[in-house]
Amino acid sequence: MRSEHVLRYFIINAFAVGLGATVATSCIKVNYPTVAFRCNPRQGENCPDTHFCCSDDPSTADGSLPKYNGVAGGGTGTPLYADASNALGTSGMCVHREDIPTGSGLLDPAAANCPIPCNPTWSAGEVSDICGANRVCCQTVELGDKDCVQDGGMWRPVTGADIGNTSVVPTTNWNNVAHETHQDPNGTVCLSVSGGDPKSAAFNECITHLTVANQRGFCMSLGPGQVCPTDPRSPAEGGAGYRSICDIKNGTPPAGG
Fold it and tell me: Would you say the pTM of this structure is higher than 0.70?
């Protein structure tokens, strides 16, 4: 599977968001699932006519939990790329919003009934605060090879905090081709919210919280026996036994590890 492919779970098991519908569109009746494939919200109409490009990025300028307009619970941060700012980011998924159960998605008109974006690396309590009780946060897209940096001899997903840091290899400048799934190349949104000053503390704080695919996902309700596709726990432990490309680059884990 290519690194930028949507995780197979979302193509086959989109019912975990709400329903398991497939949508026939156009005269040749191409059937698309509820959550179809990756898209770029900033590019406008780049989904089938039946679908809308919903951001999967909950990032805020200060790294706090997001507060989505009209949605109960949540944090205090204004989403940079989701909700009212859905059209500003570069990472999203084509979603047939009519399949999302009423009340389980976003409410802002700019992204009405899109699944709620979340970060799979949040704690269980943080996921509960944003997604609601008995829901989980599932990563939407796999990391690519260029999303990994070596830090202290170990590979891990890159973040905006690595920009210009010569202690990680390769050093990143977060431009358009630096990585495969990085949000907001060149930090254009961060520059906007910091008053256009690339030397400001606000800009530096904002770019620190830029992410790649391991920190983007949707809130989901899973049925019995279902797990998020990137759950690293073994199947015996109730997980998927998933290893990201960064994990794989670190070699074979020890037995039982």
Answer: yes
